[in-house]
Amino acid sequence: MREAPGSKRQNAETESAAPLLPAVAHADRFTVQDLVAEATADIGSRPARLVMTILGTVLGIASLVATLGFAQTAAAQIARQFDGVAATQVVVTAAKAQSGANDTTVAVGRLPWDSPERVALLAGVEGAALIGEVQLAEAASITAVPVNDPSAPVAPSPRLFATTEDLLQAVDGALTTGRFFDGGHDERADRVAVLGAGAAERMGINRVESQPSIFVAGVAYAVIGIVDGMDGRSELLDAVIIPQESARADFGLAAPTELAIHIAVGAGPQVAEQSILALQPDDPDALEASAPASSSDLSRNVQADVNVVFLILGVIALLAGGLGIANVTLLSVMERIGEIGLRRALGATRRQIGAQFMIESIVIGFIGGIMGAAVGVVAVIVVAVVQGWAPVTDPLVACAGALLGAVVGWASGWYPARRAARIEPVAALRGA
Hints:
The protein is α+β, with helices and mostly antiparallel strands. Helices cover about 55% and strands about 15% of the residues. The protein is built from 15 helices and 13 strands. Strands 1, 4, 5, 6, 7, 8, 9, 10, 11, 12 and 13 form an eleven-stranded mixed sheet that branches. A two-stranded antiparallel ribbon has the order 2-3. α11 runs parallel beside α14 (about 395-420) and α12 packs across α15. The radius of gyration is 40 Å and the shape is elongated.
């Protein structure tokens, strides 16, 4: 049976067209590159709006990165100040024990009067001084006037400390005016006194050229100097300081309270151990020595508190940038309803429409994150240089800031993208 000529022609056309079907289907496929190109095509179409949108993200990320950098820099500066004092101080005191029915604490040991000379030979010791607080009688007072005026208001007297000549070197003190007493004053039990800056201000003494006198329990002492500093022993700033032998002669000082040792950084554990053996070789348990730790617990606590405060402020600033992206993306959806309906009518799926706006938000957030991280790092460096600090910035924070911008963009674009994906073609074209 013969086939019609038309049938052969139709079969040939069908056979020739069959291999072309996969190529046509492949050409119509919507690839990831097409999606990215479609999503980013509209980003630069409105430069002013893009700048304002990115500016919100830049400010948010910059605030977060900068505040974290400021927190780390400030905390490092605070920690350095704490550790700078603590790392050079060793304090030796008499051991304490519970005694009696009332569980009162009593000293079981005693510091020798020549303790500074004994520890001065140890490696790492740069200075040492004995410190003892002098307990006056209840009715005794320290005043700058010789006459007691009963009508004058009663002011609390400053504390009285007796020390040896190397106190300033041992506690990092500094003279404001005048001089500190020397070994000769101490050996002769001279009645001279040095005032802490706070005590001098309370007594109204700011000059020592005329050697003004103060009266300690009625005994006149000539003021020869005013001291300040002493960050590790701030109680001395509000006290009157007299020579140790003067306190023994006039007020019966029985024993020094502690031995302050100024050491080289890193020599704390060694000096603490050896100083006890040098002072009490026959009974080392009678004394206790506190050596600086490798790092200050106080400085770590301060750093943690500062980080929390600045982190909260940075997150609040970042929320403002996220809301800016969400508002602009939602506005973009409303303005492009006609375009969305046309693309849906031409075969675009809801997922493709939603992904387009989602990628657009992520790109905007990522750009803002990069710029914000750079601005934040520069701000930390500039402020640190102006203040004379060492800037501390974690590179991971800057990288995380850029990625966080993309995350903020993704979170901000979720609702607008979902709303765009739910737009029906007919309703969109009819509304357009």
